[in-house]
Structure prediction request, 1362 residues.
Amino acid sequence: MASRFWTQGGSDTEEEESDIEDRIEKGGAGETTANAPGSKYLERNASDSDDSDGQKRVVRSAKDKRFEEMAGTVDQMKNAMKINDWVSLQESFDKINKQLEKVMRVTESDRVPNLYIKCLVMLEDFLAEALANKEAKKKMSSSNHKALNSMKQKLKKNNKQYEELINNFRENPESEEEKFEDGDEDEESDGSGSEFEDPLQIAESSDEEDEGEEPEDDTADGAWEKKLSKKDKLMDREFKKDPSEITWDTVNKKFKEIVAARGRKGTGKFEQVEQLSFLTKVAKTPAQKLEILFSVISAQFDVNRGLSGHMPINVWKKCVQNMLVILDILVQYPNIVVDDMIEPDENETQKGADYNGTIHVWGNLVAFLERIDNEFFKSLQCIDPHTREYVERLRDEPMFLVLAQNVQEYLERTDDLKSAAKVALRRVELIYYKPQEVYDAMRKLAELSEAADGEKDGDEPKVEESRGPTAFVVTPELVSRKSTFPENSRALMDILVSLIYKNGDERTKARAMLCDIYHHALFDEFSIARDLLLMSHLQDNIQHMDVSTQILFNRAMAQVGLCAFCVGLIAEGHGCLSELYSGGRVKELLAQGVSQSRYHEKTPEQERLERRRQMPYHMHINLELLEAVHLICAMLLEVPNMAANTLDAKRKVISKTFRRLLEVSERQTFTGPPENVRDHVMAATRALCKGDFQNAFDVINSLDVWKLLRNRENVLEMLKAKIKEEALRTYLFTYFSSYDSLSLDQLTKMFDLSDAQTNSIVSKMMINEELHASWDQPTRCIVFHDVEHSRLQTLAFQLTEKLSVLAESNERAVEARIGGSGLDLPLRRRENQEYAAGTAAVGGRWQDFSFTQGRQGSSGRSGRSGGGRPLSLGQAAGAGYSRNRSGQSRGTGGYSGRTGSGMRGSQMDASARMVSLNRGVRA
Amino acid sequence: MASYDLTPQIAPNLDRHLVFPLLEFLQERQLHPDEQILKAKIELLNKTNMVDYAMDIHKSLYHTDDVPQDMIERRAEVVARLKALEDAAAPLVSFLQNPNAVQELRADKHYNLQMLNDRYQIGPDQIEALYQYAKFQFECGNYSGAADYLYQYRALCTNSERGLSALWGKLAAEILMQNWDIALEELNRLKEIIDSKSFSSPLNQVQSRIWLMHWSLFIFFNHENGRTQIIDLFNQEKYLNAIQTSSPHLLRYLATAFIVNKRRRPQFKDFIKVIQQEQCSYKDPITEFLTCVYFYYDFDGAQKKMRECEEVILNDPFLGKRVEEGNFSTVPLRDEFLENARLFIFETYCRIHQRIDMGVLAEKLNLNYEEAERWIVNLIQNSKLDAKIDSKTGTVLMEPNHPNVYEQLIDHTKALQGRTYKLVSQLLEQAQAPAQAAR
Prediction:
């Protein structure tokens, strides 16, 4: 696309060539390609320049790029001349001066490129022409006129320093030709990326340039005046002196000035970064360097102020590098303390490297680190997951993990365990969702990139040396740039999580706990995950947490549900997942996409908030798998349940969602072959209702989501066994009234089960009084009892039924009026107890040693998941989910209020200054 | 069979001295080589002051009369320290041994302290010395002395932390002296303190509960009332949670207590669920027996487990306590357990069958045919079982056991009354509240 554009640009300019010819001796047709729209386009795609191969090329093509840029600006100027637009001409002039400095850097020569000189000549001529033409001058608008005048002065001043060259040029205009040839070699390489490509280098180069020029010509200032703001001018003046003359005071003064300009209108963000990075080179003491580095990083954070956009990736990388340098300094000088609580002494940083006492420097490592992580997260949210870019971005993760590891180690050394816990949480959050395979891949990648880094590191010292004279405080790389990942992600999690449990604050601990649960569930350790969940009592107070933690909770619950299913605990799995699906907004609850709601139009504000909460694609839980598992769990529980209660089907509903789906599918006149997950499960349900287990299993087996499971064979095996069991139960429920007795052998043959299994299943049903039957042991038969009531008895039962309905509706009415929700549940529970006691009494003479489990088999089963624990899992999860949902439906107000204090809050408010960022963290 | 030995799990939760009885038992059962046990004993004794005992063991272990030098040195050191502590605590001890002086003590702690300080020059230092002395006595194996001193120390101490450790010490001493009644009292006292809200951290509290439960095993399986009380203690929610979180092996003792205890049916159901849930973290034949009978209805499996249970019980230091009767010793708990377990199987079996072959039944009950018949006849006669024996076909016929319709009806409506009553009272409350507010 880019190249097509370029060629277009080229042809355009060729046309124009003739017009300009009279002013320029020789048009650089090929070079004028980078015209104004072109550079705009490039600016938009700034992040493109991050391509790894692009970087490799940088060294080779930088020169060309700079020239190209310059040529583009020249072209712009030509255009401006044509329309006599002095304002834009003035702008372009400033720009070209700026570009000149870059060109000088890459060419590494003192010689000013001919292109520039040519441009100056052209301008001079045009200016003279304009001044001569009095009539046209009068017609000009006031702003244009003003620009013309200032231009006149500027040009005069500027041209002085190049006088000789200009004269040379006028004499021999051809000589510039050669320079242009390289210009078009590298057309598609991205020019404008260089603008912030390497602020450090740029600043440095300007510095070098300054020094180079200074002895020759002191009046050179004039040139700089135009391209840099006032502050820069000052800076340059100050630092153009001999390096030895630069004192702490001058640097400090300069630094204060730059920082003061932060956030003001007209302060270029990149410029500021450049200036500050330059200052780090001339800092006199390590403490000062540190202080300035902190500002560099916050300036880098400033680069992107939009709420939803993310920080440019190369700036992000720079930022990480800067953080590592900070750590280097801190490790090298253990007496320097970073703190954001105290206001350090004005001249604290004056104390040099040999100072023995502690030096306080203002800053907050954790806040920076978290911000960097947030930016990483945001960038993943923004980048399209199906592109290569996304993958490239993911490769930066080890880099961040290294930084986090180092920061954590440093914090642990300085005994700031609370902050260390926060950093550990960031690491945990990058690891918890990774299955072992992904983790291994990441480890390998980290090792690979380390090897690559090693090569780069080899080069680095040289660069450092060449910069030598400027960097007063040289910091060796003390902090390892390599990460040490344990073999097993579990081991890493254990280390981090235990640190957090010991030292973290409430929120950190809760999040770490959720990640831990998720990770355990991912590794199919259901009982551990469940115990953690129950012991932490997270489900009790999750609704008081911030939204992102709630999302994390939902994710953990979903994963626990999947895990329960995989280990064969159907009821538990259903308990975990059913609430997630009951509202039909799974996507929203898991933050994996925005679900459209038919009834609530979302305000744009709401939508934006929601978008900002989204999980990056690589962290998603596969929704199809989740749905399949949920529906299958529901099917296995609901089908026998429906068969058992054919008469009053409405009363005991285990899964409302499932029932609704079933109704919909039954209403269809024609049922086609199953297409999606839902269809498959419905087809299986129809088979299962008839007791046809083989068919049911085959349908479910044909789902292709199963390939996502790690131990697929085992799970399917388990599923088959479960389906058989439920098929048997369904069959017995459905047809027992037609039989007087049934032989065990026949049943085992029908359902392909072993004797012991059948025996166990049927016995369980008998004990739970789901089936009114008993074994005839000598003949191995099930004998069904006739438990028909007489008409009077039936009527009496109906009466009592109605009475209890009446009582219930009374209660509900009162409840609605009073609003006391506490009434219902305890009552129901007590009733259950009484009922159980009642059945025990009915047992009569068995009372002494009878074991009645109560008639409510289903209620017993749903309670099984929780058992003797404080809260049954299913219930608890329900509470968490429903709260969350209500929170979400409450909409913007509730959310923005809550997130404001949270971590993501500071992320959303990207324009926050460093101070407020820190406050956000502390809050 | 050693695989079901719980000593390694239990020992860390016991006092050093309390582990000795367990080791003695193991030595008797010869589950492990003698040498290992003796070594373990020396290891234990190294940290205590019972140097003489350690020397004896050392001699028998290596079959020599020589004793290592460090033991001799340690002995001298212990004796010297004993002397020093005795001197330090002497004033208070002599005061306490004087019956006249002791009568001056009153129930008021502050008064006592004041009085001791004024009239006998016994200050906090001496009281502290008494504690140290008592502890040292305990370490030396003089449990009765330690128990006495600790009792008196508790009467005088003001530091609750110290008081608590004194209580633990007293409990250990009583257990080691086998004064089960007193030990039980101490246990309950300790339990109250642990359950009180003022306890430091929840983690600490759970740990204390675990300790308490482990120590209580000594008492409960020796005290005549213990088997009921163990259920009372262990089955409390807080304690059950502690068991589930940190020491699931205690489920064995709770399960056994449930099996031998006939009157605990209501809690039993919940307990089965707990066992079911903890299957992944702990199982042994006793818990497996329960799951077989009450969860899988696998009676053959239960049968097998029952036989294994017998072994487990015999080899467990708490469960396998022997009673000497004349020439032969019996393990009362084993017999009781087997009898009850058999009943469990039979009861469940009968509930789901209407006709059972006597031969099969006898096999399932681990009895021979005649025994089984007699056993069933007994049950029928005691009207525990609604059945008849058909001796021609050799089967037991269960009487169909349908819930009485009338009782069912009563059950259904019973709750209604309570609910309505509650509803009305709630309504009245509501009505009154605004009325009062209006006034």
User: Anything to note?
Assistant: The beta strands of chain B are 323-325, 328-330, 353-357, 387-390, 395-398. Chain B touches chain A through 64 residues (CB under 8 Å). The first helix of chain B runs from residue 7 to 10.
